[in-house]
Write a structure and sequence with these properties.
By secondary structure, this protein is mainly α. It has one domain. The chain contains four helices and no strands. α1 (3-15) packs antiparallel against α2 (42-68). It is elongated, with a radius of gyration of 15 Å.
Length: 115
């Protein structure tokens, strides 16, 4: 099984506003709830940023696990694209997880570090 893909499923199910429940049928947690524009969202954004940073560490480990188990690049492009968009929204880059340093382009994470 592709570990990167599994982590992508988990977080996409958790954060995708098009979903109605998590992959285990649990309650849906929306990262940007429908709120009044005057409300202070700094606490919610900080909480989401911490979740994204934790996800990034899991993804780094999963990339190495997949590589060690002869499944490099097994993730789906749409999952990686979504995760990168959420991460970028809170100021976290996933480029060091999915792109080789200095590799221009590659918006969907086809090239992984160390390959």
């Amino acid at each position: 099984m592709c570990a990167v893909s599994m982590i992508g499923d988990h977080y996409r199910n958790r954060w995708d506003p098009q979903k109605t429940s998590g992959s285990a049928g649990g309650p849906f947690v929306q990262p940007f709830p429908n709120i009044y524009p005057t409300q202070d969202m700094s606490g919610e954004l900080a909480k989401l940023k911490k979740e994204v940073e934790e996800m990034k560490e899991l993804l780094k480990r999963a990339v190495q696990y997949d590589k060690d188990n002869n499944q490099p690049h097994c993730e789906q492009d749409d999952k990686i694209k979504f995760l990168k968009q959420v991460a970028e929204a809170v100021g976290v880059s996933l480029e060091d997880v999915f792109n080789k340093p200095g590799t221009p382009g590659d918006p969907l994470g086809q090239q992984l570090i160390g390959n």
